[in-house]
């Protein structure tokens, strides 16, 4: 009979305690304390429940680096200024935005975020050009965009970002793309297709934009466009029609979930094509923002939803080996 040493080339280790789940992936060992054989496994990504937001909202923005470090802001109804910060367990109210707003996106981190455009109260009105920067403590007004719009897609950081697409009659589904250097906005080459409530991932010079409302598109709300810092090119369509979704990641490793119409579907992007993966628990729509990565992302806000869901990929597990 073949032995483990004969197959693997080494003996089973005897340990008094288990290693961490991520360190143990693919390993077999004997736990001398529990008197059991253990094995580490690596599973596909999944969503798990997080802490509820304090103020339910839709058409809100968001930003953050992972599923345990994020902020959400603004939203409707009515146009609100509320900002909340997430630590992986619970949401905390922090300083408000300067003007209530919705139809927004957002990008950056929990301590350095950017928000542009939207439907603003306090005299700013629809299709705003306003730009606000979050420094981890408070919001401050920064230089306006060149083209006012609702529902733009924000990508990048608070000092190096893109604002693409959006809605502003009579242009309607605008293709405008602007670049932010931390001080001012510069007009860049236009998108191939305009989108209202599109999502995105990546950086100012290496980005991907997908989905969004625009019935004139060849594949409505499924289109994917990649940016190389100079021009836009068409890439593989999403499997699901969607707009107003939160997203995260890079141009070659992105994730998006939910969207309008309300859905639980999750898709990941590898730089060429989209793949359907594990669904969320709660259908979610009308929420925007660039939160996390393809391995650690967050969904927060949306129409009628207070629940937060956290994405982790891969999922590491330690299992006890049983012999029958």
What would you note in describing this structure?
- The protein has 324 residues and is mainly beta.
- It has two domains: 4-43, no CATH class; 46-312, Kelch-type beta propeller (Neuraminidase).
- The protein is 3% helix and 40% strand.
- The strands form eight sheets. The chain has a nine-stranded mixed β-sheet, with no helix packed on it. It has a four-stranded mixed β-sheet with strand order 1-2-3-32.
- The mean pLDDT is 92.
Descriptive key words:
2 domains; mainly beta; four-stranded mixed beta sheet; Neuraminidase; globular; nine-stranded mixed beta sheet; 324 residues
Figure out the total of helices.
2
Shape assignment: globular
Strand content: 35-45%
Largest sheet: 9 strands, mixed
> What is the fold-level CATH name, i.e. the topology of the largest domain?
Neuraminidase
Mean pLDDT: 92
Rg, Cα atoms, Å: 22 Å
**Count of β-strands:** 32
Stretches where pLDDT is under 50 for at least 5 consecutive residues are none
CATH architecture descriptor of the largest domain: 6 Propeller
Helix content: under 10%
CATH class of the largest domain: Mainly Beta
Structural class per helix/strand content?
mainly beta
First and last CA, distance: 18 Å
């Amino acid at each position: 009979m073949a032995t483990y040493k004969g197959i693997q080339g080494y003996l089973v280790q005897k340990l008094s305690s288990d290693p961490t789940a991520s360190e143990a992936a693919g390993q077999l060992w004997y736990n001398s304390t529990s008197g059991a054989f253990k094995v580490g496994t690596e599973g596909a990504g999944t969503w798990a429940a997080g802490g509820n937001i304090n103020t339910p909202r839709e058409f809100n923005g968001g930003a953050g680096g992972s599923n345990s470090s994020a902020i959400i802001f603004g939203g409707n109804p009515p146009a609100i200024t509320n900002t909340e910060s997430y630590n992986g367990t619970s949401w905390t109210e922090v300083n408000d935005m300067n003007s209530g707003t919705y139809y927004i996106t957002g990008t950056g981190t929990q301590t350095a975020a950017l928000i542009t455009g939207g439907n603003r109260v306090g005299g700013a009105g629809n299709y705003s050009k306003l730009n606000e920067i979050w420094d981890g403590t408070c919001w401050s007004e920064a230089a306006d965009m060149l083209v006012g719009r609702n529902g733009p897609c924000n990508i990048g950081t608070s000092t190096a970002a893109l604002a693409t697409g959006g809605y502003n009659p009579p242009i309607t589904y605008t293709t405008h793309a602007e670049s932010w250097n931390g001080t001012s906005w510069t007009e860049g080459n236009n998108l191939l297709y305009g989108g209202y409530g599109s999502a995105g991932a990546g950086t100012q010079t290496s980005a991907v934009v997908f989905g969004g409302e625009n019935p004139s598109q060849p594949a409505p709300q499924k289109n994917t466009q990649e940016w190389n810092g100079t021009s836009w090119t068409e890439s593989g369509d999403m499997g699901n029609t969607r707009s107003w979704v939160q997203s995260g990641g890079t141009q070659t490793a992105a994730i998006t979930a939910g969207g309008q119409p309300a859905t639980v579907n999750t898709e990941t992007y590898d730089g060429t094509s989209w793949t359907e993966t594990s669904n969320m628990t709660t259908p979610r729509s009308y929420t925007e923002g660039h939160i996390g990565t393809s391995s650690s992302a967050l969904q927060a806000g949306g129409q009628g939803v207070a629940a937060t869901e956290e994405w982790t990929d891969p999922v590491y597990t330690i299992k006890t080996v049983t012999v029958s």
